[in-house]
Specification:
587 residues; alpha/beta; 6-stranded mixed beta sheet; 5-stranded parallel beta sheet; 15 strands; elongated
Length: 587
């Protein structure tokens, strides 16, 4: 019971924001229309139940005129039922797509807000494969929530509608056993209730493991698909290393989890289906067994017996909702659990500064320099990485940061960018200053080359001539004629070409502070020198901070800072002179 309450609370938390959103009136209107049509369909079922009594009584009495009349009544009821069923489905699908659209935008907004997606990876939270949760899980949540919710509503209304009919029929057709009548008020209703309780209890006992099995199946499927994507994205490196055999083995290992869990689902589903199918088939004959003695004793007519069987079937079906929908409920609960885990992971990453000691970013109104004050940068596990106090990056100087691998150079850049929260102290950045970080492997979204170069600006933010000039200036005249061509540029271009386009992006955006994290490491030294001269010429007022290891970079920077690794903490020095007397200080 506690699990059911917890699941319903999660469903309410996920579902209700849409019906309070800017699209609430459309959502509420569609939901109300669908509910009204569902209730109308139940009302038609009640009318058909009453029609069965008249129809079969006409057959028993060989009344031709009554028979024809009932045929026409059925045609009218059937036509109305078909119209309502068609438009209920249509409006239901319309509600699904609107709800899914809002929920997808909401999750994308939360996930891609303030580097939350990046922090989720750093924290190692359990929300595996966010892509699947935002696509498949959202789609299935909306679809199954409506299906199960409407099915439950229909069952409740059907139960109350037909239990009254069945109670009356129980009095009209008393239990007839061994030549005697036994007046048991509503015995047909009690029979349906006992039958449904028995079936529900056994169904839950047999099918309960399906909840966890479905959860695991979704996780294994997503993990297998994710690794297939990784192979595609890194196909060149795999081919160069002749790693096809190793990748095949790794993929088959992951697929083995999919197969193993699927066999477990098959086994449990076989048992559940065996019981539910037996239960449903027995339900067809059970009401006739109860009322047949009264019929053969001439206590009721054929029409009464058929109406009783139909009403009993409706009541029993309503009471057995959890039996017939158990597998769907198990899948639905696993989807709800996955979305709940995703929401908790997003909230944990988004609220990290409120719950843990984090690096504070301060905006300096009149300042022109970036300052590090009592800064200590940690790894996610709490291990100190970089420490600095009273260090400033002045405008418009050129700073070269060097040091061994693992000294925390790139992590320091991430902290300045505001996406690395682990640490203490503060980083002061001039108000309204434009910062741009260029990593060693720049990111280009799939699409038109021109749009990829100006990312993250919106398409059309720069004129085609501006983009063309920037691409030509970084030494890629051949690509300047392909700005309208769509492609997966991170796969189609060499790393050197990608780095040149990254610098073209910097020229277009003209940031106040440009941080280059080995952003020219794949270029030859003459090309690197030409591009640094280009940055000096095109961005004379920009402060450039570079991470690099080549001695040739010294000529393009006015200041050099060395980060040294000595024990658990790396201290950032203030200038190029050796820091005395502390041996752990960087110089």
């Amino acid at each position: 019971m506690n699990n059911i309450r917890a699941t319903l609370a999660i469903v309410w938390r996920i579902a209700i924001p849409y019906f309070r959103s800017e699209d609430k009136w459309a959502g509420r209107g569609l939901l109300a229309a669908v509910v009204a049509m569902e209730l109308a369909l139940v009302a038609i079922d009640v009318l058909v139940n009453q029609w069965q009594n008249r129809f079969y009584s006409a057959l028993q009495a060989s009344d031709w005129d009554a028979f024809i009349t009932q045929i026409w009544i059925f045609v009218g009821l059937a036509s109305l039922y078909i119209a309502l069923a068609v438009y209920k489905l249509y409006l239901n699908q319309w509600l699904q797509i609107r709800w899914r659209q809002w929920l997808t935008r909401h999750y994308l907004g939360e996930w891609l807000s303030g580097a939350t997606h990046y922090r989720m990876q750093l924290k190692g939270d359990a929300a595996d494969n966010p892509d699947q949760r935002i696509t498949e899980d959202v789609k299935n949540f909306v679809e199954q929530t409506l299906t199960i919710g409407l099915g439950l509503l229909s069952s409740i209304v059907t139960l109350f509608s037909f239990v009254i009919i069945l109670w009356g029929l129980s009095n009209a057709a008393p239990l007839h056993l061994f030549g005697s009548d036994y007046m048991i008020p509503g015995y047909l209703c009690w029979g349906a209730l006992i039958y449904a309780i028995f079936g529900t209890a056994l169904t839950h006992w047999i099918g309960a493991p399906l909840v966890n099995l479905n959860f695991e199946q979704q996780r294994f499927e997503a993990d297998f698909r994710f690794n297939l994507v990784r192979v595609r994205e890194n196909s060149e490196q795999i081919a160069l290393l002749k790693g096809e055999g190793a990748e095949r083995g790794r993929l088959l290992d992951r697929f083995g989890f999919v197969i193993g869990n699927w066999y477990a689902i098959m086994s449990r589903t076989k048992r559940l289906t065996m019981f539910t199918a037996s239960y449903q088939q027995a339900a067809v004959i059970f009401p006739y067994v109860l009322v047949a003695p009264a019929f053969f004793a001439k206590k009721i007519q054929l029409g009464d017996m058929m109406q009783t069987a139909s009403a009993f079937s409706s009541v029993q079906g309503a009471l057995s909702f959890f039996v017939t929908a158990y597998r769907s409920l198990a899948e639905w609960r696993s989807i709800v659990a996955r979305l709940d885990g995703f929401e908790m992971s997003v909230n944990s990453a988004a609220n990290l500064p409120a719950h843990e000691a984090t690096i504070e970013l301060k905006a300096a109104g009149g300042g022109r320099n970036i300052g590090l004050e009592k800064l200590c940068v940690y790894l996610p596990n709490g291990t100190p990485l970089v420490a600095a106090d009273g260090f400033a990056i002045q405008t418009p100087e050129r700073v070269l940061v060097t040091g061994p691998s693992g000294a925390g150079k790139s992590t320091l850049f991430r902290a300045i960018a505001g996406i690395w929260p682990f640490g203490t102290g503060s980083i002061v950045i001039p108000a309204k200053a434009k910062l741009m970080m260029l990593p060693q492997r720049p990111y280009f979204p799939v699409g038109a080359l021109g749009d990829a170069v100006i990312y993250p600006a919106a398409p059309g933010a720069f004129q085609a001539a501006q983009i063309r000039d920037a691409v030509v200036s970084v030494g890629l005249p051949d690509l300047a004629d392909r700005l309208g061509e769509d492609g997966h540029w991170n796969r189609m271009l060499s790393l050197g070409e990608q780095q040149r386009l990254g610098l073209a992006r910097a020229l277009l955006h003209a940031p106040d502070y440009l941080f280059l994290d080995e952003a020219t490491a794949s270029l030859d030294e003459p090309s690197e020198a030409r591009l640094y001269r280009l940055l000096t010429e095109k961005l004379p007022q920009a402060t450039i901070v570079s991470i690099g290891h080549r001695s040739t970079l010294d000529a393009f920077h006015t200041r050099k800072v060395a980060m040294v690794k000595d024990g658990p903490i790396h201290v950032l020095g203030k200038d190029s002179a050796p820091a005395e007397p502390e041996p752990s200080a960087a110089r």
